[in-house]
Structures are given as C-alpha cells and as structure tokens.
Amino acid sequence: MPPTKYLAILLVVLAIPVAMIGACHYIENPKTNYNSMAEVQADGAVTRGWVPSFIPKETTEITEQHNIDTNNGFISFKLPNRGLIVNGNPCKPIDHNGVKWFDSYPIWWPSEIQGSSPESSKLPYYYCDSGIVGTEHKGRQYIWLPGA
C-alpha cells in the first residue's frame, strides 16, 4: 500500500475520536434559543428548571444552555423597557467577591462576566433564590444557575 493511503487511513482513524468528543460536548451542553417567554413556557424549560420562573413574560431573545452532568445553567435575554430584572424580589445585591463563579462558561458567554476577568469586578451582581446569580452587560441580562 502506498504511504499516502496509510496517511489517509491514519487521518480518518484520528478524526473519528475528535468528532465524537466534539459531538459529546453538544449533547452534554444543549443550547436553545427562544424568541419569547411564551416559547420558553411552551417548551417546558421553566418546568424542567432550566429557566427561572421570575423572568417576565415580555422578555425576548432568550438563550439558554445547561450542562446535563453538573446542572449548571446559563441564560441571556433582553428585557425591553426595563432595567436589570434581578434588581429586586427575589434578588438582592451581592458583592463581586460573593459570586459563585464557574470553572467554564459557554462560548457565547461574555468574558467580562467571568470571575477571572478584571472587568467582571465592575459589574453589579444580584443573588436570587436557589443560588441564581445575575447581572446586566451591554443591554442584555445574564443569569447563571449553579447545579445541584
């Protein structure tokens, strides 16, 4: 067999595990985009605990992603004509140092809202029921939920 065939076989053999690892990431970390809270409700994401029930019905452009193993969840959305949703009941202000930061974040999560980022200390944070933490960044609301 010519050396190029061996190389081709080797590349295929190496590519299969890499593709499987990549696929597992998306299976373990499903991401869903919704246009409205009505879509979130219809999909059952609130009932399943992936989206907090206190998010107002007028919320739009919702992105939800969670890790099936850790149950850590990440949500981003727009709230037209309102300030920070988590500023108030059931949420209270919390100092940056009191935030439970995660070891990893979804690729779409802004680096400014990660504990290791110097910019993260400049944002307001709010602690809500069940360990939910939230903030606002560049016109979007961000909420993360610690797993069980």
Fold and architecture overview:
The protein is an alpha+beta fold. It has one domain (30-145). The chain contains two helices and seven strands, in the order αβαββββββ. It has a seven-stranded antiparallel beta sheet with strand order 1-2-3-7-6-5-4. A hairpin with a 5-residue loop joins strand 5 and strand 6. The protein starts with a helix and ends with a strand. Residues 18-26 have low confidence and may be disordered.
Helical stretch count?
2
Mean pLDDT: 79
What is the SS-derived class?
A: alpha+beta
Low-confidence stretches: 18-26
Distance between the termini: 54 Å
Strand content: 15-25%
Shape: globular
Brief descriptors of the model:
about 150 residues; alpha+beta; 7-stranded antiparallel β-sheet; 2 helices; 7 strands; about 25% strand; globular
Helix and strand layout, with pairings?
Blueprint: H1 3-28, E1 31-36, H2 37-43, E2 60-66, E3 73-78, E4 92-94, E5 125-127, E6 133-137, E7 140-145
Antiparallel strand pairs: 1-2, 2-3, 3-7, 4-5, 5-6, 6-7
Q: Could you provide a short overview of the structure?
A:
This protein is α+β, with helices and mostly antiparallel strands and 148 residues long. Helices cover 22% and strands 24% of the residues.
